[in-house]
Amino acid sequence: MPKVGLVYHPDFLLHETGSWPERKERLISIMEFLKQRGYIERMRKLEFQPAPEEKVLSIHEKAYVDRVTQFCAQGGGIWDQNITVLSPESVRVAYLAAGAALRALEAVMAGEVDYSLALVRPPGHHAEKNDAMGFCVFNNVAIAAKEALNSYGLNKVLILDWDVHHGNGTQHAFEDDARVLYFSIHQAPLFPGTGEANEVGLGDGKGYNFNVPLPPGAGDGVYLEIFERFLRPVLLQYYPQLILISAGQDCHFGDPLAGMRVTCAGFQEMTRQVKVLAQMIGARGPVVVLEGGYSLELLPYATGAIVNELGEFGDQVVEPVAPPPAAKDAPIQEALDKVAEIQKIYWPVG
């Protein structure tokens, strides 16, 4: 049975956002679900420290870090266009979240565990080098990816982002760097408005952004088609040494902020396929870091399905409500064909 590391700290709950969609109850509900299912006792709890400032500065500008630190010290408030809420403890918790992602990476790279899960908040993939955005403060996955390059000597890292919102901050952090392949499946149009299929990277990184924007209604079948049609051939050509997952479960059918139709079975199968591909190519991971997901009732089930597959616990995780029918209309296939037409210049996709 695989060894699965869990990186979590109760201080993540001190990032106070009130009744905002990204709130502490998300983690409370996930942890309670994992305890009830007996998963936590079968995972390895990994102790960790907040990320050192120099690790955060590998992605973010010092002026921004100082500015957000001062903002929190003055009591916090609403940071960006009524979206990101910060409290006095938020910047300390953001350092802790980045540290959790670094520890999840370290445990996999050191062979302590086969896979790791960092249950963190605030999330990270919208955070730009000089700005907080979309509930995100520091870009946890980007910081971990940069650590993989700088401290572990890797030169091929895959970031798979299945959060329903495009990870603009992650893309921008590596869009000119061929050492990191950013692969995103997201709903469009939707916040933040980036991630068009023709955003393929810049300079040396041209061809290493792989965006799959989809109209609403896509369910398990479409996501698994993307894995087979795009992700598998890309990985078999790129051969990443490490796989990081920005795991936002807001593409689940019950999420209140989006319109996708992925089920628990879909999350489990996507996780299984990533594991299989990693084993085929000899990649470490996946290292899974929580991003979005805002249904307090259903987010725990979706995340539990991922954990169930990582640990091969043999459980059956099924939502307590039936999913609506997934769309199988022409716009979705047109979107996939457009991606294939753009990316076939760089990858063996069709």
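The record above closes out task 2.4. Task 2.5 opens with a second protein, given below.
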Amino acid sequence: MQYNRMLTPILKQNRLYVLILFFVMVNADAFAQTISCPEKWWAITHPFIAIKAFKITKQVLMDLDSLKKEKIIGEDINGGALDAFKHSYWMASLTNKVNSTRALKLGIAHEKGNKIQFKKHRLEDSILPDSISSAMDLHNNIAGSAVIKKKKIYSKKEIQQLIFELLKEGKLMIIKKDLSGNYLNCNGTLINLQEWRGKWNIPKCLVLSN
């Protein structure tokens, strides 16, 4: 009991130090704008891996930007293959270094943050978040995390290849669109987004990535 009383202040002090360092790094660049309150709380409850997770996330975004420029898997970051790759690659990269449970909790925190963003009418990747986009991300998070096997550390190229394979095999989800990039419902009918403006539950349709 006495040992626990002595240890608690030390843990709190270290947690505070790591959290302060985390936010100093985050607020140092534009990535600060993407950090939501649920993600900040995740950092508080995972103080010793928050910095590592931040660095991994930042690298993933840089890699994604390169892939977008090369047009290897398209440019659609709003419900397309590139969007699916983004979340799966992010979770796989995190799982590779901080384990699946912690990675997926961060992914869930991110989606909770998107719901808050929606309520505040704030955009993510130039559009307002919605329920189908969130469901897509959560599915792809789980799929990406699952490709990382225990007792092995993967290289960045190996992880990217694993996610490419998930896309090709149809194990990821994307949002159904026509050739012009317009959203369709599950009957293939064009969705008039003006009619659903400001709504969380839009009748978009999830389909397999292949």
